[in-house]
Amino acid sequence: MKDAIVIGAGIAGIASAIRLAVKGYRVTVYEVNAYPGGKLSEILEDGYRFDAGPSLFTMPQYVDELFQLTGKNPGSYGFEYKRLDVLCNYFYPDGTRIKAWSQPEKFAAEIAAKTTDSAESVSKFLAKSRRIYCVTNHVFLEKSLHRLKTYLSVHTLKSVLRIAEIDSMRSMNQANESLFKDEKTIQLFNRYATYNGSNPYKAPATLNVIPHLEYHYGAYFPLDGMNSITSSLIKLAEDCGVKFLYNSPVNEIVVKSRAVEGVRVHNDFHSASIVVSNMDVWFTYKKLLPKIKAPTRTLNQERSSSALIFYWGINSEFPKLDLHNIFFSANYKAEFETIWGHKTIYSDPTVYLNISSKYKQDDAPPGCENWFVMINVPSNQGQNWDELIATAKQNILRKLSLALNTELGPLIQTESILDPRTIESRTSSYQGALYGTSSNSRFAAFLRHPNFLRGIKGLYFAGGSVHPGGGIPLALLSAKIVGDMVSSAD
Ligand code: FAD
Q1: Which pLDDT score is estimated for 137?
Q2: Higher per-residue confidence, 127 vs 267
Q3: pLDDT at 152
Q4: Whose CA is nearest to atom 41 of ligand 1?
Q5: Which family does it belong to (predicted)?
Q6: Residue 155, SS3?
């Protein structure tokens, strides 16, 4: 039996391990932390449970596929989910509230009722979003962009013939301003750029593909919380024979005669013919491959935005809030200029409030709610975070208290904080970026690091910092691409 080693038990590391085990490899995963999941983990505090990172679950079929591959039933591993009727509740500074119904016609009617835009303009937008998905999906997401084979398929040829439809020559905001009249509708759709940590005023309108994923494929809630994606896949991997070793930092990938030989953990050598790095690619080169010439241009791509999150145990209940809630800033453009231009936190930030106890009651004590309060912030470049966080907390509390007509400060029972520094140190994500590199350039898809290293046999990369990008669905697709490459190399 051949040995394979995976560095990191993030979601892409776990998925890669399952795929390699199914192919017959004896797989060991080395994880530096004492727990699995990386960004997709949980925090338990004073009777509250919080999902630490991702809160929005889309494209569950990529998780299901791992169970199907192994012939197992996800339900018996604690992985079940339900489709959401309401994707998000939007609160605007002037008191307007828009419910983003998952059913496109109902959502279009809501936009027509609450803004000066028509239901037809929403349908037109969603049809366009669908077309971008059809052109980009097979080529940009499901295949390596860095192998000749990808460009020799019928799918690719069809996509190339329709390339103008992906709308890459103007920004997302320009496209949205050309279709909608109302600032509220434009702000709502511009927000989708933040789904991969980008700036709607710079990112190509190709990112308008993202709403199609929600309005067509749906958004979901795992019944046992987001962390059940990690915990169920860990059990599945273990049942496939994968061995997870925690508190085990890999400190070198050993390469000889242009092939991987294994890794060093605590300076002990472990041999393998396949090594998959799920560690952020920037740190993989800097820390594990110091003798290999790093692809500087690729590694120096602008990173995605980071986040500041307050996990608050709230001693009250708010019936007008749902699972996903957004409280918009009054000036979205100024907010993004502050984050991306001035690399600091905006004084009136758009606040995302996720409350999983709305759907999973035991996530908070009776009569209480578990609030995950997040704002977009720049990646870590040595800012004075302590000072910025203290100010941001006051601004967020003032904003939410006003919108909810309740003094929130006295209701906070417990508090934990995650910021760009701790995201960087706990998950080895360079600069604390949530999604690897940003998609602010129209060439971003091509400039992401490939899932392999040309000229080094047996070395692969999976995770949000490499092709096809960040977020749970894409991280899972990176593992799928790695699995396919290993098969064709066998
Ligand atoms: P990571 O989760 O980054 O895991 C990498 C693992 O490698 C870590 O466990 C780390 O400890 C380990 N490691 C690193 N170096 C070593 C080493 N030398 N030796 C051993 N182990 C090592 N995505 C969504 O789809 N929906 C969302 O709503 C969403 N919201 C987010 C909110 C936040 C606050 C954050 C932080 C992320 C969010 N994301 C969201 C993005 C998503 O979480 C990530 O894209 C995805 O989880 C990345 O998974 P990964 O496998 O690339 O690696």
Answers
A1: 82
A2: 127
A3: 65
A4: 471
A5: Belongs to the carotenoid/retinoid oxidoreductase family.
A6: helix
The CA 383 to ligand 1 mean position distance, Å, reads: 22
The domain 121-214 having CATH identifier 1.10.405: the answer here is yes
Ligand 1 proximity of 479 Cβ (cutoff 6 Å): no
CA separation for the pair 275, 138 (Å, rounded):
26
User: What fold characterizes domain 305-427?
Assistant: Guanine Nucleotide Dissociation Inhibitor; domain 2 (3.30.519)
Q: Please, what CATH class does the domain formed by 3-39+226-298+444-489 belong to? A: alpha beta
**H helix runs in 180-284, sequence order:** 183-190, 210-212, 227-239, 281-283
The total of other beta-carbon atoms located within 10 Å of residue 366's CB is 8
CA distance 40 to 147: 30
Ligand 1: centre distance to CA 442 (Å): 24
Domains of the chain by residue range: 3-39+226-298+444-489, 121-214, 305-427
99 forms beta bridges with: 89
Question: pLDDT of 450-486, one tens digit each?
Answer: 999 999 999 999 999 999 999 999 999 999 999 999 9
201-237 per-position pLDDT tens digit: 999 999 999 999 999 999 999 999 999 999 999 999 9
d(CA 198, CA 204): 10
**What pLDDT band is residue 446 in, cutting at 50, 70 and 90?**
confident
Atom of ligand 1 nearest to the CA of 39: 2
Q: Is 476 in the pocket of ligand 1 (CB under 6 A)?
A: no
